[in-house]
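FIELD: query
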Amino acid sequence: MVSLTLAQKGTPLPYVAGALAEYANETKPNSYSVQWQEGASLKGKDKAANSVLIDNGQEFVGSRAAEAFILSALPTPVETAQWIGFAQERLGSSVAFKDLELAFSELDQHLQMRSYASGYAVSVADAALWGALRASAIFQRNLKIAGQQVLGPALTRWYAHISAQPFVERLVAAAANAQTAAKLSGAKVTTDQGSFDLGLEGVEDGKVVTRFPPEPSGYLHIGHAKAALLNEYFARSHNGKLIVRFDDTNPNKEKAEFEESITEDLRLLGIHGDVVTHTSDHFQTIYEYALKMINKGLAYADDTPHETMKEERMNGIASQRRDQSVEENLQRFELMRQGTEEGLTWCLRAKMSVDNPNKAMRDPVIFRCNLTPHHRTGTLWKIYPTYDFCCPIVDSIEGVTHALRSMEYRDRNPQYEWFFPALELRPVAIKDFSRMNFVYTLLSKRKLQWFVDSGIVGGWDDPRFPTVRGIRRRGMTIDALRQYVLMQGASQKNMLLEWDKIWALNKKIIDPVAPRHTALLKKELVPVTVVGGPDVPFTKDQPRHKKNPELGTKQTVFSSLVFVDQADAASFAHNEEVTLMDWGNAIVQDIVRTGDVVTALTVQLHLEGDVKATKKKITWLGQDPDVHPVEALLVDYDYLITKKKIEENDSIEDILTPVSEFADTAIVDANVGLLAKGAIIQLERRGYYIVDKEAAQSELGL
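FIELD: result
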């Protein structure tokens, strides 16, 4: 994998190179490892070193050199190449203001009838243009202050659309989170923020190597995200290297599907390993180390039944096989390797201790037989090392300097350290940090798998799941997730965290950019006759967000017949003055009821009334034959379980929330029907929603 490092304060900001690299990752995953680094230069005082690309040891310093390297491997038709040149020459930081204005105008004109700069899909030209505009202080200032009034509606529309592309979101998230990490590393610790001081020993700038070793047997959850982000944080903060290693030692559980999903989730989190490896790359080496242990009298083959072995370990009783000869152990290990009928009854155990107070040190199993084909090595191997055996070996031979892992492994740390002198390997420093546990939340893969297998959830990306995909589908932004994890720091204090804090952080991020829309429950619509309303319905452009004009406008229908929610209608009194949001005040003249249910209302417009004086601000939808409201399914969720803190012996069935998904059919304003999947909006007086399914046949999932 090619490494691309970008300077956070470089001149110019190296967004073009970054966007091109992430675009390349979109077309061919894991082509580039892209990371941001604090400072204006990556080479001392060399101001031109705003980016450094490394390919097989060869360095390309400066954004233009990096851009040229990346473009050399991407298809660039003539028109695409012209727009790349436009981005580099006409939109650069050294271009005069008047020339930039002219370039913005030309680009706006070009995009009047186009969704993309070149062709009918996102291309490398869009990546280059977006990168140049993102790096342009003048463009960004105009975008913030004046928006389309200065830059043009087509250009601002196109820029917003490209900004929402996954490859751009990854780049922006990585930049924002690198900046957050830099601030946090030097900031005073508060009650909401953990310390980053793990007391790491032997730290040398530029030589730190950490690793994140997920098992490809499920999807990444929020706990994994903490481990991944902290390992990346310590590697980057010491100008070191991060290894992403798939710990694929259990063919019964592992699938290529999980590996692909983990890779994608890491990319979405803005985490790029400098190296991606697999434990299976080292199976032969690990096997040879097992032979070495047997020959040194440090391992023995054992066929003690599982329950008996478990009882002996608990009570500090030595196995009857513990003192076998080296020759006997080698013979039986060979039967294991061949996967014979007899070999399947044996395992290999490390000869550590019989009665160590730390039960993890009581002759742990280090190799087992398994005839299930491996998703990478097929049927080559019939024996597989345990995580506890292969981890110290692979850490040492891959050059890891600091192994950072959660405190659930603390009892096994002495075991990890025992293997280095036993196998004559370079030792690796090990430090642990607390797990990120949340109330009413399960993080056990086995228990989460039960929900999937039982059909209680729709899959590993269910919005009720704590997986990265699940919480993203529910509306969590990658920026909020990264910031929250980094706020927790590397504390060793176990905490049971509340979800409200991370969602509050998410709200701060989305509120300024979430367009406002209207939704009314379909089953509770109440027709309202508006006296003084327009004789003929008409539409009017109004801001999608009153405090953020950059988000553009939406069409609002004004008519003499509108609809409101039953809950609002039922609260009205005769002659009460209420406010129809984004229209004005109205006085309730007539209320028609059937029992306790309001079936119709009549109101008199009173637009000269003071909207600040009314207690009730009401959402409503007008009717126009040419602008049809959209039907949408509004889905809300509860926790999957009813118990705040899960105990090890809790039965899931006993603490299962009877109903945790709630859906209501609603009518939403027609503008919502144009939203793309993944768009986050605020439905006025209801809350924030994310588009889960695009509009099709008048149905939309929110």
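FIELD: remark
DSSP finds 21 helices and 32 strands in the chain.
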